[in-house]
């Protein structure tokens, strides 16, 4: 958590970190960045303000050949795990600063957590967002109790304005970073998973630029049981964490701006504390494709009845993509950290995922334009237990022989096997059937 204001010294004691360990530091010295006692203290302090979310056995276990337990952090009030770190930080502020208030400048999960918990603690809270911010996000922050101000056309404009307001009015400007207090709050997830699932073999977390959840929870888990594998997952499109670990310092790649679909996992790596903890404590970091994330979102919707965004689904995506074969037969917890999927993306994501899963298919074929031929095609589709989603006929621009019609059909099937059976049946009856590849 980055603290910027003229009263920055107010938090010096609460947020000061011990000296950075050298590359030869032992596991114990690395843990001094955040001690296990700090995480335990955070868990005790925030227990009345955040939910102890369930970590339940998933029906996906049989499909992927391991015992999967899902830590459902999307059930937090604001739909995000960020509440843990935010609440612990806000509760650590001096009373004078709590009276003056705090200010943030983004429309992220972090800002929504600040808006909600600052209001619950009766602190004045201001959220500055660009004018292009989705109206739903603005409304949500206002419903939580924040004063929301739209300013500027870019995130940088909003940040500059927020800093100016903080300087002029004595607000504390908060920007998500990796202070010991924030990481300790996020690390309480590791504590809960360890308590809720006995005999754990591995825990999978979202990674990317904002890897505080991964780093903080790894500190807790490795203290409790060094044999538990801690694994981070990020997007192949934004391999921020892997690049930073390879370079030995947080990368400053300007191409890694927060993508509206990926959220925080596409952001710039924001802190050396998280990076050093990750390098020392995390066993493995893997990258997954966008297709795998979409399929993970679909699996969670179908099997868990949970509407999850990309950041929340990326951990399970590593299992969907088969990136962790060593976990077969093991007991694995997956942290589902966020469920703030914007409504305009929901339909697009699910439709695309069904196509990737070969359950929504499109084909075209040419039949005679005679009475009864179309009904024969529909009878074949009914016999194959296929649901017709859309059907179009083209007569004018058909390049085949006269008095024929091109039929373009979109159908839904049960799974890949059902799709293959339909394809074979169509080719047997209509040899010229052309399948639209995704």
Automatic annotation (TrEMBL):
Listed CDD domains: ACT_ThrD-II-like, Thr-dehyd
Domain ACT as annotated: residue spans: 362-438
InterPro entries cross-referenced by the UniProt entry: ACT_dom (IPR002912), ACT_ThrD-II-like (IPR044561), Ser/Thr_Dehydratase (IPR050147), TrpB-like_PALP (IPR001926), TrpB-like_PALP_sf (IPR036052)
GO biological process, one term: L-threonine catabolic process
Keywords: Lyase, Pyridoxal phosphate
Signal peptide (from-to): none
Organism: Alaudala cheleensis
Requisite cofactors: pyridoxal 5'-phosphate
UniProt protein name: L-serine deaminase
One annotated GO molecular function: L-serine ammonia-lyase activity
Keyword Lyase applies: yes
PROSITE patterns (alphabetical): ACT
Record bears the keyword Lyase: yes
